[in-house]
Amino acid sequence: MQTNQLILKELSLSDRPISGEQLAQKFSVSRTAIWKAIKNLKQSGYQIESKPHIGYKYHDNGRLNEFAIRRYLSAAENQLLTFEIHDQITSTNARAKEISIGSAASLPLIIIGDQQTAGYGRYGRAFSSPNTGIYMSFLLDNPITTLNPGLLTTATATAVTRAIEKKLHLTPSIKWVNDILVAKKKVVGILTEGIADIESRYIKQIVVGIGINYLTDVTSMPAELQQRAGSLRCFAKEYAVSRNEFIATVLHEFFLLYPNYENGAFLNDYRAHSAVLHKQVSITQGQKQFTGRVEAINHRGEIVLSDGTTLASGEVTRIRLT
After folding, report:
1. Of 149, 278, 287, 289, whose CB count within 10 A is highest?
2. What is the pLDDT of residues 79-137, one digit of tens each?
3. In the chain, which ranges are continuous DSSP H helix?
4. Helix (H, G, I), strand (E, B), or coil: what is residue 210?
5. Which residues belong to the annotated binding site for biotin?
6. What phi and psi values does residue 291 have, to the nearest 5 degrees?
7. How far is 63 from 236, CA to CA, in rounded Å?
8. R_g (Cα) of the chain, nearest Å
9. Do the Cβ atoms of 90 and 116 come closer than 8 Å?
10. Per CATH, which fold does 280-320 belong to?
11. What are the helix and strand counts (H, E) for the chain?
12. How many CA atoms lie within 13 A of 11 on its CB side?
């Protein structure tokens, strides 16, 4: 770990200012080297307060910082998780799949990008990813030989919804299967992908991608997105919750559910937040179209329509109240 990162870690994990002399002694470098490292960190966007005769103090201004994220996690979570953070990346899901090919990574691996240049959602659609959002992918070992992506996606949506409620004090809704809405506008998208072993054809690893319009100014988005996209910006600012803190909360909620997500114990919570349950909907599945009243979301996270049609995947394109 380079001197800059060592100093950032030390400051990020400390509640109190640390003097340049203390840092120099700890890392066996000169005071001048400490000063230069602090200067470089500030130029990189980290907020570090310098007070004469007192020392340096880190403030979490939302600049992505693995050590700040880890500060909000438990000891067990810190031991479990490995991070890879990028200032810019094509796609966190694509990066996760690239790493999976090598099969040498320590898992679970959390890949986070400050900005994506080729982010994508379901059906390969482009996902707008300015550097004010949260874009992360979890590369996970699959504990079983199969995968119910619908159930894992519903578990992920539940985890993110719980994080929003706990930190931002509002109640979002979930549009089956993978969109989280605030005021009927999309603020979170989720994409779950399986990675198969070529020889066994089993799903050996899983990628869970989450894109959140966190501090995003919707007016800066492409015009075609502004009508249906929302943002958590005003709530994040009102409650002073940085991206690092919110990321840690999502991780905490997700890894509470993931070990046993297949039992569907979270589904009552998912149903309580559903934007489609007991409503008339139109659903597109490939070239097929379905219309009907959503009678239930079953134990596998599938939609059950009033005519008995059960759908494990698809896109809700229209919701009517009656």
Report:
1. 149
2. 999 999 999 999 999 999 999 877 667 889 999 999 888 766 555 555 556 678 999 99
3. 3-12, 20-27, 31-43, 66-71, 75-80, 92-102, 149-168, 223-226, 233-238, 243-257, 267-272
4. strand
5. 91-93, 116, 186
6. -135, 135
7. 14
8. 21
9. yes
10. SH3 type barrels. (2.30.30)
11. 11, 14
12. 29
Q: How far apart are CA 293 and CA 195, in angstroms?
A: 34
Assign a CATH topology to domain 66-272.
BirA Bifunctional Protein; domain 2 (3.30.930)
**Where is 139: in which H helix or E strand?**
strand 134-141
Phi, psi torsion values for 18, nearest 5 degrees? -125, 130
Q: If we measure between CA atoms, which residue out of 273, 277, 314, 281 comes closest to residue 296?
A: 277
247, 255, 183: which is closest to 214 by C-alpha? Answer: 247
| CATH assignment of 3-59, among 1.10.10.10, 3.30.70.330, 3.40.50.1000, 3.40.50.620 | 1.10.10.10
Residues found in the chain: 322
Q: Which residues are annotated as a binding site?
A: 91-93, 116, 186
Residue position matching structure tokens 């120099």: 24
What are the pLDDT digits (tens) for 194-237? 887 766 678 889 999 999 999 999 887 777 777 889 999 999 99
Q: Where are the domains of the chain?
A: 3-59, 66-272, 280-320
